[in-house]
Design brief:
Number of helices: 10
Distance between the termini: 34 Å
Strand content: under 5%
Largest sheet: none
Helix content: 25-40%
Order of helices and strands: HHHHHHHHHH
Shape: globular
Radius of gyration: 24 Å
Number of strands: 0
Structural class: mainly alpha
Length: about 350
């Protein structure tokens, strides 16, 4: 550790990173409060009145008493809890999203059905063997382990080179797409490093996490950036309206696909593992040339026409999806091109 609070690699120390993260969370919380519309008079004020006055009340008076789990019981070693749940960013995010969903849906005839579905899907993620409470202990168990609170480390990242994001889909026109001129985060990298990764922490170096892959240069993987862009868009669209339950739902759906052993970062080695950090791309799947006898087609109907005679063929070309530039042809496993304005990634 150097005198200016950085380690030998030149990165800020863990203490400085946590302090900066805490300040960032406080700033975002204040920003979200400002974006929340004020309650009106009469019926509007009554509709906006919350049943629980705080997140602590929601968790302590409804969530935990209603959905009880045998934490630390024999055979329940994969179900974890931390009495200091409020010290875990992921727990605050998830429980806060559930609280907002509760307040929104409690007066709807079928509103609690949606809340219950999300809650039963989120709890195994938060309290599971690889969740934020995995290193914590909530009571003295049969092995004599006492109460303990321990955070999961944030994965290491390297900043993208200057100019890397120029031309990326979403980095130029996000204001119009989200129909909101002011964004909480200025770009996908700031969103990933400032909120997503510090909130939803997973340690790829932990025991039992050998198949949870990570790359310090995550921004070099097109698929990872694509998913992070989707999450950034969704967060920006839902945060002002306190509808983050949809954001959490999408995070828990995408994370296993991003980090799994069949995912884009399979061949990479993160910091902390032997040989890391190291970036490696998977090879692009091979494609054979189409025989001339097989019609190329421009629509789904053309592709299915030979097999389903009843399909009506359309002469209209398929519209490009998602407003993305057309892919650039060419490239191989050593130097490939993609939708980022044809930039080559060595």
């Amino acid at each position: 550790m150097t005198r200016n609070g950085t380690n030998r690699s030149g990165r800020p120390s863990l203490g400085r990173q946590l302090a900066a993260l805490g300040e960032r969370v406080d700033t975002l919380a204040a920003r979200l409060d400002q974006l929340q519309p004020a309650a009106g008079d009469g019926e509007a004020a009554k509709a906006n009145q919350r049943y629980f006055s705080s997140l602590d009340d929601f968790v302590n008076l409804w969530l935990l008493p209603t959905f009880r789990r045998p934490v630390a019981a024999l055979g329940m070693g994969t179900w974890h809890w931390c009495p200091r749940w409020w010290a875990h960013p992921e727990a605050r995010m998830v429980f806060g999203a559930l609280w907002d969903s509760f307040e929104t849906n409690r007066t709807e005839p079928l509103g609690m059905v949606e809340l219950t579905r999300d809650l039963l899907g989120f709890l195994p993620q938060v309290c599971g063997a690889h969740g934020p409470f995995a290193r914590c202990r909530s009571d003295t168990d049969q092995a004599g382990h006492a109460v303990r609170h321990q955070q999961v480390s944030v994965v290491a990242t390297e900043p993208a080179p200057a100019g890397w994001w120029e031309g990326w889909w979403g980095e130029e026109d996000h204001g119009e797409d989200l129909n909101r001129p002011q964004l909480i985060f200025r770009g996908v990298e700031e969103f990933a490093v400032g909120l997503l990764l510090p909130t939803f922490r997973r340690d790829p170096n932990a025991v039992g996490m050998q198949r949870w892959n990570w790359c310090d240069q995550w921004w070099r993987h097109d698929e990872v950036v694509h998913h992070f862009l989707d999450l950034w868009y969704l967060f920006e669209a839902r945060a002002p309206h306190k509808r983050l339950v949809e954001f959490v739902r999408e995070v828990y759906f995408l994370l296993p696909h991003i980090h799994c052993d069949a995912g884009p970062m399979r061949e990479c080695v993160p910091s902390g593992k032997p040989g890391g950090p190291r970036h490696a791309d998977l090879a692009i799947a091979a494609v054979e040339s189409r025989p001339s006898a097989i019609r190329a087609g421009t629509t789904t109907a053309d592709w299915l026409g030979d097999h389903i005679p009843t399909v009506q063929h359309s002469q209209q070309p398929a519209a490009p999806g998602f407003g993305m530039p057309e892919p650039v042809a060419g490239g191989d496993t050593g130097s490939r091109t993609h939708y980022r304005k044809g930039r080559e990634v060595p």
